[in-house]
Hints:
By secondary structure, the protein is of the alpha/beta class. Among the domains are: about 270-325, no CATH class; about 775-780 and about 805-1060, no CATH class; about 1080-1370, Spore Coat Polysaccharide Biosynthesis Protein SpsA, Chain A (Alpha-Beta Complex), CATH 3.90.550; about 1380-1555, Rossmann fold (3-Layer(aba) Sandwich); about 1575-1735, Rossmann fold. It contains 84 helices and 30 strands. The strands form 6 sheets. Strands 3, 5, 6, 8, 9, 10, 11, 12, 15, 16 and 17 form an 11-stranded mixed β-sheet that branches. Helix 21 runs antiparallel to helix 22 and helix 62 crosses helix 63. The longest helix has 23 residues, at about 1080-1105. It is elongated. It starts with 15 loop residues before the first helix and ends with a helix. About 45% of the residues are buried. It comes from Commensalibacter communis. This is Glycosyltransferase involved in cell wall bisynthesis (RfaB).
Amino acid sequence: xxxxxxxxxxxxxxxxxxxxxxxxxxxxxxxxxxxxxxxxxxxxxxxxxxxxxxxxxxxxxxxxxxxxxxxxxxxxxxxxxxxxxxxxxxxxxxxxxxxxxxxxxxxxxxxxxxxxxxxxxxxxxxxxxxxxxxxxxxxxxxxxxxxxxxxxxxxxxxxxxxxxxxxxxxxxxxxxxxxxxxxxxxxxxxxxxxxxxxxxxxxxxxxxxxxxxxxxxxxxxxxxxxxxxxxxxxxxxxxxxxxxxxxxxxxxxxxxxxxxxxxxxxxxxxxxxxxxxxxxxxxxxxxxxxxxxxxxxxxxxxxxxxxxxxxxxxxxxxxxxxxxxxxxxxxxxxxxxxxxxxxxxxxxxxxxxxxxxxxxxxxxxxxxxxxxxxxxxxxxxxxxxxxxxxxxxxxxxxxxxxxxxxxxxxxxxxxxxxxxxxxxxxxxxxxxxxxxxxxxxxxxxxxxxxxxxxxxxxxxxxxxxxxxxxxxxxxxxxxxxxxxxxxxxxxxxxxxxxxxxxxxxxxxxxxxxxxxxxxxxxxxxxxxxxxxxxxxxxxxxxxxxxxxxxxxxxxxxxxxxxxxxxxxxxxxxxxxxxxxxxxxxxxxxxxxxxxxxxxxxxxxxxxxxxxxxxxxxxxxxxxxxxxxxxxxxxxxxxxxxxxxxxxxxxxxxxxxxxxxxxxxxxxxxxxxxxxxxxxxxxxxxxxxxxxxxxxxxxxxxxxxxxxxxxxxxxxxxxxxxxxxxxxxxxxxxxxxxxxxxxxxxxxxxxxxxxxxxxxxxxxxxxxxxxxxxxxxxxxxxxxxxxxxxxxxxxxxxxxxxxxxxxxxxxxxxxxxxxxxxxxxxxxxxxxxxxxxxxxxxxxxxxxxxxxxxxxxxxxxxxxxxxxxxxxxxxxxxxxxxxxxxxxxxxxxxxxxxxxxxxxxxxxxxxxxxxxxxxxxxxxxxxxxxxxxxxxxxxxxxxxxxxxxxxxxxxxxxxxxxxxxxxxxxxxxxxxxxxxxxxxxxxxxxxxxxxxxxxxxxxxxxxxxxxxxxxxxxxxxxxxxxxxxxxxxxxxxxxxxxxxxxxxxxxxxxxxxxxxxxxxxxxxxxxxxxxxxxxxxxxxxxxxxxxxxxxxxxxxxxxxxxxxxxxxxxxxxxxxxxxxxxxxxxxxxxxxxxxxxxxxxxxxxxxxxxxxxxxxxxxxxxxxxxxxxxxxxxxxxxxxxxxxxxxxxxxxxxxxxxxxxxxxxxxxxxxxxxxxxxxxxxxxxxxxxxxxxxxxxxxxxxxxxxxxxxxxxxxxxxxxxxxxxxxxxxxxxxxxxxxxxxxxxxxxxxxxxxxxxxxxxxxxxxxxxxxxxxxxxxxxxxxxxxxxxxxxxxxxxxxxxxxxxxxxxxxxxxxxxxxxxxxxxxxxxxxxxxxxxxxxxxxxxxxxxxxxxxxxxxxxxxxxxxxxxxxxxxxxxxxxxxxxxxxxxxxxxxxxxxxxxxxxxxxxxxxxxxxxxxxxxxxxxxxxxxxxxxxxxxxxxxxxxxxxxxxxxxxxxxxxxxxxxxxxxxxxxxxxxxxxxxxxxxxxxxxxxxxxxxxxxxxxxxxxxxxxxxxxxxxxxxxxxxxxxxxxxxxxxxxxxxxxxxxxxxxxxxxxxxxxxxxxxxxxxxxxxxxxxxxxxxxxxxxxxxxxxxxxxxxxxxxxxxxxxxxxxxxxxxxxxxxxxxxxxxxxxxxxxxxxxxxxxxxxxxxxxxxxxxxxxxxxxxxxxxxxxxxxxxxxxxxxxxxxxxxxxxxxxxxxxxxxxxxxxxx
Length: 1754
């Protein structure tokens, strides 16, 4: 389709008739004022008010879509948007909201011969494309539209469906559907305001509104897609849609991405099953519909659906419509690629970006800029290039799937995935025997129906005539016998011609075809196609052995090439170089194919003149051999290259101007005679490529390759990898010569051709390196102001241009004039000849294309390590060359252009120095400050500036004298390069002597291959593991530890760089204090290694069983995790998270630019939202980005180098929501070596911090109680999202890391909330797994200063930093007081004997808000589980202390406690001497003695009952005095009942308080009738205890009587703790007695038994066991002593019995046991007593009163 006459495009014409109809309201004005001249009105008025000149151009939309154009119109640069489009915009802008130029060109470029003779794609569309049912937008289906029109002739007259629609746009389109993807009728009915806007002529129709409105997220396109559901259900979509984002709305995401990803368009619709239905598959495969969603939408209107299908089939059958004409046939892939470009490209090229974004229906992204920063703290002014916010965009998620060793052979490479296979097939790894894959799995084995029908167009009619079922059946039955190829990757005819023995075998019926032969055995050694050589490919990639290929699932080299190598840009023939082809091919490569596959598949549509490599010139070939074109036209050959490689007379054709076949064969005839028989070359050119280039033979008479190869620039370019050999160098640098006669005799400089100079010499002006930097210039050349005054020059730039250029001055830090002239001697010559003023002038005009501007940058190095930038540089006018790209973008992304500048190493220097701002553009900022503040900065692992200046002090003198700018420049430019060594671990002398093969290649001669030994070592020796120094065994080091893995993961380039880093780290650590936590013990190092090793165990499991974080509805928690490398460690953390918390998790992962396998992490996860940052975003900033996406009420921060212990997340979250004033909760962090990393953290008054108990045992008591703290680490911390948002996340002043969590916690506290440490939430943390300790140390120092400055008001009230203050600083207790609770033992409830009451006291103290420490003084250690399950989590239980450490304890916690509560009088007696000694450390006015029981009355009673002998002093008065005298040191005495209180008062104590027991009423349910048996409950600590005595007396005196009186069977159960020393056998002689021992829960005993007995004969205080029994609702028979102590009423609340009347005691038991009414009375009355006297509130009030009374003066 070629336009025969070049006419004015339709879109450029003014349409008088349409204009009058469209703007009918202004016709009277036109008639009255402009005499009816419509065009004159438009020129003078209409275009100024936004009128369009014709239906094909929308003026208002154009200005709105391209704001830059609107600004240009406003500034009178253009008369209107239409004027801009006609003059410039037509090249790459879209003119209308229903047509996208970029899409149309990509869709139909090849089909239309690149729109030959048309001004642009739109011109072609309006003239031809529209009539041919082409589409310029996914929202306009021309066939669908035409189907709904009554008069088809009108459509043809209008020029096609699109133009007909535009012509009638002003009328109401009503129910007409323009596309299945949009429902006009539903839209205007659903959104009434849209209808109103249309009536007001703000929009032409509903579709116009949908594609142009400023709030695209508020509208759905049809009933079949819900915009709100889609964005809410798929939370990862939210960040990529909307105004200013790559996609306009969720619907765009669904069309171009979501459908392929299996996402749902609305809540009730599932696509998966629909897509599998046979009729759907058939419709899609025939290109009738693009996907199942469109099919389903169309199906809703059955009538229109049937009409459309019939019309489509009719068009296809009549060949009026082909698959290539269909809209969106490849659009999904095209637009997907475009979206990725938008995200990664950001806003560097605003015009291009706007166009691409428009093609997606989105708005442009704004740019952000900041002013430079001057750091005034340095001795020299620090010049900084501030961060470019436009480069903070997030990189799109990579879709590459890593090729792993353990993958199944059958799944080794997914044809739909761009696997980076070559990097994974490591020949150094020990090969494992692998089964040889079947050829049936080879990529070249598949039959390509679409290609076959296109290639052999006549087969369609034959298939119909033969009534065959499929094209493939035809091929196997007939085609293979006709010499047909089954796919584009195998050439049947060439194969048979090349391998005649195969043809012979076919004739003998051994094989049906050459393809069958190749599939069975030929694939093992033969080549399948004239454009691929199996031997060449294997030779190029030496690691592709048969075993290695088989192990990784490839059949042969060709299979590997098609599935992997082609996609990675590798060549399979010298005549096809993928990158070269792409550079000369003006159309996009088909998605999913490599360049080679695309070329073969579309070779019939690719221009014959398209070059595929340097080695063949098709244009010259056709000119030289015009008969070839005739052969091509006759179908005998496909194109010139095909002819050259397959013709029958190969020695009669030369491939290009610079090779003469006849000359070469004649000149080197003797060489051919010497060849072995097997060395058979097709022609001289084949020999020349294989051998001749290496031997520097002469390819044609004008070229002396031997002489040419010795040119300085040629050698340099080849050494730098710019060209593979001298011949290609010649071809590339003489590409503009088309006749040998034009070749100059003196080819001395490769740049002398005028064609090398840019036509526009000002094209470089926008480059960063082209700008004059006045501030830097004055700082660098400090004498300039004085000279300016002398010369009378006012402008610094003028001085540079008039004088500085002659002094060798550089205009800016990015260009080194001195080095440039040193490196390129020919430039010096040209300056002397007057061709250029300076080296800078040369570089600006032509040098920037091929020369390097600075000794610290190599464009080859930059593009080799960042190949994706090549296209970006070539495709955008934003970048002049690679160096400009590096300075503008690559530098900010932390890329490098030299081995001698590593941005991460420079960052380390900046962090140590506290100059974080200089890391935004590390390279530019280093050059700005290189000779001043950064003079000694080390910026690479391969050069040590500080060591160099110390080792060679004369260099520093030369720098100060101005001869050199830095140590690095001296190293590069000094005249004796072998005399200087770059760092202490490389020896020039040793290296050269150690490796004799270097003799002759190292010399100071500029023509030598290597300037010194170090240059060879870096380029080759380090990669070969040669030793750089006598003390460095690099091979051994490479094989040690994790060095090899680190290199393979991309952390280091080579083993030497790894060695240098380790040595620098060791030296840095050696200067640290001995107690620095950066000093790792051997145990710590081993534990870290084991932690990592365990993490790797997780990989196979996660690879097979993905971690599922998907959820429905609203998540319970949002987890934010930042990662940087360490994939195995990260997956371990995530696996522990998934196993730890069963609720709904919104997982937000931020990848801070990982370089290892972490880039494949999403393949291991389901439902996780992954954000990949363009470079290391830092901690706080990256978290803040993710915080914006949080949806849960709780946000949990987790490091990626952690392992969560069971229940950790649940514990954090439950405690977080337990109180409204708790904002954040952290947990116990344990290092892999088993020591604490922190148990909460302390902030000192000077702003420094410390992890509490770092290095201690995690089980120590001090680490195991809940408390408020200054801050917790975000290695694991939960925070309420509302408060996190209220505080706006992390502060930005701490970028990139450290102190953000400290600052956040301080701001939480300042806002009135609490930060809490919870020891039950435990996490194992590797610490510093992904950080450099040198960097972290420097950042910590720098950010500490910022923290102090930001929170001076807070810090002044913190404790001073001192080891003695650690305990008092560990807990924030501004209001709460601290109590030291001293007891015999840890007060566990199962111990009985008063410990239950002590337990209750501790519990209530904690509830009242006191900070309690329990200190047991006896040497008895209960199990930890018993302790922590029986006491509140906020109580510190010093279970491992005894009375022996009490004095030291008082000393260490001097002034810490407000109250000391001593349980039991005898304990006070024991510790009184220690308290006296520690008088000044403990509170003297807040001591409380809790007697628990006054023992003297009990002791005297025991003596009486047992008839023990008494002394004269054994009187009550003397005994009480003796017992209670110690209590006079206390301010308050506490007794358990009124009786004991009276004893205390009788002894002379006034401050006596009563605190009884605390019990809840909890009656057991069984009735009297359902119960049987008697019950005794009590602990038996020894045989002298009251309980043992009571049991012994009861069983001997009372129990026999009870047995006699009972008329029914019963049991007597004895329950309670029994000390091992107590002999219980004396109680076992009665069959009714059941001895249970300690029982954890007595409830069932209280429920089953009918009567509880308490036969205690001597006791003190209140028997807790009676209160407990009564609270459970079991009536009691007790001794009169106990009833009196209780203060209860006999025969009402309890039965009392005398110990002196066993008969009566037994009668009381039997009576209560047998009388139901009596039993119920006592039960109910006792329950009432308990409820009144022992309730919790009363107990707590009494306790609070006691504590308040004691502390009221404080």
